[in-house]
Every structure is written in structure tokens, then in C-alpha cells.
Amino acid sequence: MSETKRNENKIFTLCCLALLCAMQIVLARFVVIPVGDMMRFSMSFIPVVIAARRFGVVGSAAVYGVGDLLGAIIFPTGGAFFPGYTLTAAIAGTLYGIFLRPTKKEETKTALVIKIILSALSTQFFCSLLLNGYWRAFQTGTPYLAVLATRVPQCLIMSVVQSVFMILFLEKICKAVKIPNVK
């Protein structure tokens, strides 16, 4: 591959990731359903899983981490910036990338469904429940187990929502936005 073609691929990848990052910011900051003081439902995972499916671990971690950081700086939602949530977002992006990264060989529908379910469960359990629960308890001074108890319903619901959404639409969205696999 020539140097020019390699540079074009890098620029294309960067532009796609920047666009997905912008989508993540909009979905995380403006398309949110708050439920009480401690729960909120968001579809901000969609650009992240697209990045995971097309660009792998680094792409999805960058989209979620940078998107969270920029979103917090540009559109603060009450309170000072807290880096723990950005770290959790980058870890969640990494988990999505590990499970949903592009493969060189064709994968079966069953294998993809299993990967999708594992990605949703792992990000919701480890990142949303445990890590974000810890950050919330740390910030508010509320006992950790009390915070966990309030977050369990949200994590269970979002695991199902994310799994169903990705099973039904992930591959269709990736094809519709015409982002080729980057291997």
C-alpha cells in the first residue's frame, strides 16, 4: 500500500471516529431519559458499538472516552468535571471493542449474538453498576451498597435494551452508514 493511500485511510478513520464521537456527545447530553436523581437512560452506546464493530478496541475506547470528556467540558450537567466517569467510559468502550471488534473471517449470527449479549452485560455490570456506582458513592458520600441497590434496575434494563438494539440493528446501521471494516 502506498504512503498516500495509508494517509488517506488514517484521515478517513479519524474523520469517522470524530463523527461518531460527536454523535455520542449529542446522544449522551441531549437524548436522555432521567429517572429520579441517580438513574438515566441513554442511547449513547450506539456510536460506540459502531466504532467497536468497525474500528476495534482503540476506536471504541476513543469514541467513548473522548466523547465523555468533551461532552462534560462543552455541556456540563451540574457539578464539576469528574475524571472517574471518563475513565469508566473509556473502559466501557474498550469492553465493547474487545467483544465486537471486526474479524477477518465471517462470523455466524449466533456467535455475533453471544458477543453482543456479553458486551452489554459486561459494560453494564462492570462499568455502569460497579465503577459508576463507586464514583457516585465517592462523590455523594452515600454508602456504596446503597448506591448499587439503586443502580441494579437501570443496569438490568439497559442490558436488555442494548442487547436487543444491537441484535436487531447493529449490522444494518454499520452497512447503512457505509463505514467499511478497518483491519
Describe this structure in words.
The radius of gyration is 17 Å and the shape is globular. 77% of the residues lie in helices and 4% in strands. Helix 2 packs antiparallel against helix 3 (83-100) and helix 2 crosses helix 5. It has a two-stranded antiparallel ribbon with strand order 1-2. The chain has 183 residues and is mostly helical. The chain has helices at 3-30, 45-74, 83-100, 109-140, 144-176; strands at 32-35, 39-42.
Attribute tags:
183 residues, mainly alpha, 5 helices, 2 strands
Chain-wise SSE layout:
Blueprint lengths: L2 H28 L1 E4 L3 E4 L2 H30 L8 H18 L8 H32 L3 H33 L7
Antiparallel strand pairs: 1-2
Helix pairs in contact: 1-2, 2-3, 2-5, 3-4, 4-5
| Number of helical elements | 5
Rg, alpha carbons: 17 Å
The biggest sheet, with number of strands, parallel, antiparallel or mixed sense and barrel status, is: 2 strands, antiparallel
Tell the overall outline.
globular
| Content of β-strand | under 5%
Strand order of the main beta sheet, please?
1-2
The total count of strands amounts to 2
Structural class: mainly alpha
**Percent in helix:** over 70%
The overall average pLDDT, rounded, is 88
Element-by-element helix/strand order:
HEEHHHH
Low-confidence stretches: none
Distance N to C terminus: 14 Å
